[in-house]
Queue: 2 jobs
Job 1
Amino acid sequence: MVSNAEVAKVLEEFATLLELTGADGFRVNAHHRAARGVEGLTQSLAALAEDKASLTAIDGIGPKLADKLVEIVRTGTLAELETLRVRVPAGLLDILRVPGLGPKSVKAMWDANITNTDALKRAIADGSLLKLPRMGEKAVAKIKDSLAFFDSSATRTHLGKAAAVAHTFVTAISALPGVARIQPAGSLRRGKETIGDIDILVAIADDTTDRDLATRIAARFCSLPGVIHVIAQGSGKSSVLYALEGGLGRWKPTPQVASTKSAELTASFGSQPAAPRQPSIQVDLRILPESSFGSALMYFTGSKEHNVRLRERSLAMGYTLNEWGLFPVSERTVKVSKKAGGFKAKLAPASGSTNKVAGDVIYADSPALPAPLLPPQDRGVKPLASASEEEVFAMLGLPWIPPEAREDRGELNEAGPWDLVTVADIRAELHAHTTASDGLLSILELAEEALRRGFHTIAVTDHSQSSSIAGGLKPDRLRAHIAAVREANSKINGITILAGSEVDILTDGSLDYDDKLLAELDVVVASPHAALSQDPAAATARLLRAISHPRVHIIGHPTGRLLLRRAGLSPDMPRLIAAAKEHDVALEINSHWMRLDLRDTHARAAILAGVKLAINCDDHERSDFDNLQFGVATARRAWATPADCINAWPAEKLHRWLQSKR
DNA sequence: GCCGTTTTCGGCCCGACTGTTTTCAGTCG
């Protein structure tokens, strides 16, 4: 079976290759959009493909793309894609990933027979790259610089690692005088499971008389310990590469891949260190006036697709939206051009008039405008809204939409209010390990930590016997452990300690303890740990069997994936969700940033089907409790409310539900 | 390639920045 993610990947590659061959940009964009749509789909595409009408009902999918989707589901690929793969050298895709190089430049290189990064390095070394159109000294130097860091800069970074980096920057910069507000934006603020680069917004007072303030903030930003390369440094925008630590908590660091650079090329790039460079992440800093903070925050939080929808909505309402604010569209001044000796302004109609763009209007004697254009405020145009996100959304007739929901998945059609689950709503942890297996805390230490964080319930769920590496408990040890949990529970006030187990789901779907022992436990979290490369059919059967077991409360990290590391199982998720509904089993969102499993789109599908979610930290040590924010972010990306999450229920309701399976 | 409170054709979001140019193309988010 072809998964939605695989279909999206095929479409994405097709769009990229189309772009390189110079296809119409809107056609390219339509394919990129379709890929994202498929990726975010909650139903299985393989099932939808039976009926073409259900495909064209998806936003952005027309008749032609529907045919392509059917073809991909049936064959795993596209005939057109295979043709392009033959035509377009694979190495061009590597060149395209170099920062600063887009489809037009790469196409020009292809025409000059530069078809991989090694050839590009040679063309830089022998000066032939300079002969290409629009390739001057500076452009070539920039490409050379980017190439030097290309091998080491990770394309994506785990949410938890990126959040820690952002925290470092926010702490350092918020301490500077004159910083009115500071806030990470981008995919980090949206809680995406992996992060490309980190955006940080800083607001300074509009009426500041300190002309060097922004410059000083940027200077501090670029000189923080850990910054290994400054890409750009200015008073409005700065970008740096920041060194990432290799450690992944209880997962071992990724082994360094040896450089494949040939000796000859190393010689021509001799000024760069030859040893494998440290993995890094790009961090962008934007500095802007406080009066634009709301609209800028929306702009830089994205997603890009969500922003496009907002701007379309703005235009339809007679406004135009940009990072400086929401403006009446009739005031729009777009481009300065000396064509025909005057200034050209593209005017769109005001509200109530025709929806067609009126076209270019030439002003013969417009006063000279400074270049680059000042923000509209400084040209005497007042924004209708800009200081806060709430007021911009309100002007557009929308409730404030949480950042996690800004993915162009229909959020603009929701009436609101958006009362999504928050970290403060979570009052129970139902998946935690002690020193009895591979945890670092005793039962009481674990309970005290949970109490400190305001929880009413903590479940002790050590590993079962098959997880021998993790110190899984044989039945006799488990019975003694249950007794120890009961005793600890009698000694502590203010929190309930439950006796549970994280029971292995064995390869065939059976559980790692017999039914009699399982019945003695207050909480059973059943999780797959081994045989994580099973084929989808076997994985589906395995998990369905565990879900239908009458003693199971929660399926822990259902796919066993490790982000950027291991794909894990690919079961037929719609079937698992239907079974979870039928047997009243909760599906876990494991909050560790290496897992975030269930992923957001599957959790969304579960909620739509009426399946309960459990947001657990899978604690092994104190700091693991801090990962709750990432599990909650994933749940919020699935539009989960407190009612959807059993950890947010009051104690009596939760305990009654757990007891119903005994 | 998609789409329609006027559209089945002609639109498709917006601005900053950079470098290469003498008025603008490419890239990025």
Job 2
Amino acid sequence: MPELPEVETTRRGLLKILPGRKILKVEVYAAKLRLPIPADIPTKLKGAQITDITRRAKYMIWHISNDRDIIVHLGMSGRFRMATEKDFQRGVHDHIVLYLSDGMMVSYYDPRKFGLFTWAEDDGAPHPWLQNIGIDPLSDDLNAEWFYPQLQRRKISMKTALLDQKMINGLGNIYVSEALFYAGVRPERLTLQVTRSECQKLVKAIKQVLNAALKAGGSSLKDYRNVKGRLGYFQNQFAVYGRAGEPCKTCGQVIQQVTQNGRSSFYCQHCQK
DNA sequence: CGGTAGACCTGACCGC
DNA sequence: TGCGGTCAGGTCTACC
């Protein structure tokens, strides 16, 4: 599910609920997601407060009063549900349930359990998964002067390059296809063959797509919901993702689907070279 | 270095 | 209705 826009939408939703409330109780119903959920989390969080929630790539960092940070990753199907204690009904996929002061509840829901909920550091060492994260696509770090040489010294498909979180963080399968469409570059094109002007367009397209998705509250496929249970609506604006066989909104030609690294890419063979 | 396959896990959907 | 196969927004490891 969640690429940068969905994670950021989730973060903003949680920011409205978690800070300022005390954590009264934490219940954990799964031993592990992608990694084990540390056994000491319920004890350590009891009585604590979340002072802030920040984001690094697709990871959320929960800043806890008087304790280490927690990192949260939504994997493919993770999301947070919010409810009042009165209304809350735990389902089989609600793995971590937080009881907050004034009767609010927040739960981490994740059918596929590919997410992550653990201490951000262990023995003073930052979690290895937080190492080697590439640049933030929405910051000025992503510009053609930086990006072009990066592309020149590699010989991989553009799809693979944009999915590589160590180069640019935050893009996933949906937004890679969308950004490549707006830049007019096919997913199979090799990094080495991308021109300077295409690189310029890519930079623009990546930012434009992510910002538009953010504005729409993310994309909802299957079961993505924001914290309030609302659907994002960017999926209604997809130019190519999931539209194989349908006409290109720009030229009318049929959208193509190919498999790269075991994952689908979508493109228009007329608009993308 | 790059590519590939498999691992983790559950649910939805399709064709028979 | 049931069953098996395929696919899904992520990302790590193992191996060629």
